[in-house]
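2024-03-11 09:14:02 INFO worker-7 job=invfold-0412 stage=load source=structure_tokens
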């Protein structure tokens, strides 16, 4: 049984120069082990960290460049020490440039995200937490679908500037066998 976790975060404010100053509004996660989607508010991150520490791998889209550095603000260790698959990083390795999750999802699995991260910041300001949770979990679902497609077919897709569908070769197989280590620090 896989202990991979797909995650995405939403923040309380738009991008700042220093990601470590940004605060989490919601973290959405899909747990392969239990086949469940769950959301975590800022005050619930301790329970998420216990599960991340047991993960075979954390999967995200721009997770190493955005999500994990922000989560590390709350974590007493370094979440980057847990095995990771950053789908955007793999796309950049293959193509030499970056693509939005929305564009990759549209060309790969046939549908887009439901909103944009800046909308989630507005919902935060308006106190509409459930809307943020729903949006974040939908992003996790899209990321999981893109991951599953790439794992199965060894490729993703995007539309080029001329509207042609182009393949992105990827290898999402885990490179090594990883055994979980309990790193919990009694949150």
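2024-03-11 09:14:09 INFO worker-7 stage=emit residues=187
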């Amino acid at each position: 049984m896989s202990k991979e976790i797909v995650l995405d975060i939403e923040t309380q404010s738009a991008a700042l120069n220093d990601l470590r100053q940004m605060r989490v509004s919601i973290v959405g996660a899909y747990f392969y082990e239990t086949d469940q989607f769950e959301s975590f508010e800022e005050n619930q991150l301790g329970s998420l960290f216990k599960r991340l520490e047991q993960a075979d791998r954390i999967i995200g889209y721009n997770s190493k460049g955005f999500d994990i550095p922000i989560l590390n603000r709350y974590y007493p260790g370094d979440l980057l020490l847990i095995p990771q698959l950053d789908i955007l990083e793999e796309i950049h390795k293959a193509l030499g440039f970056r693509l939005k999750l929305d564009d990759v999802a549209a060309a790969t699995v046939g549908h887009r995200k439901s909103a944009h991260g800046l909308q989630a910041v507005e919902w935060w300001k308006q106190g509409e937490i459930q809307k943020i949770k729903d949006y974040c979990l939908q992003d996790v679902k899209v990321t999981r679908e893109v991951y599953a497609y790439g794992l199965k077919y060894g490729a993703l897709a995007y539309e080029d500037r001329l509207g042609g569908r182009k393949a992105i070769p990827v290898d999402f197989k885990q490179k090594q066998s990883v055994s979980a280590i309990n790193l919990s620090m009694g949150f």
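2024-03-11 09:14:09 INFO worker-7 stage=report msg="Helices lie at 45-53, 63-71, 87-95, 101-109, 117-125, 129-153."
2024-03-11 09:14:10 INFO worker-7 job finished
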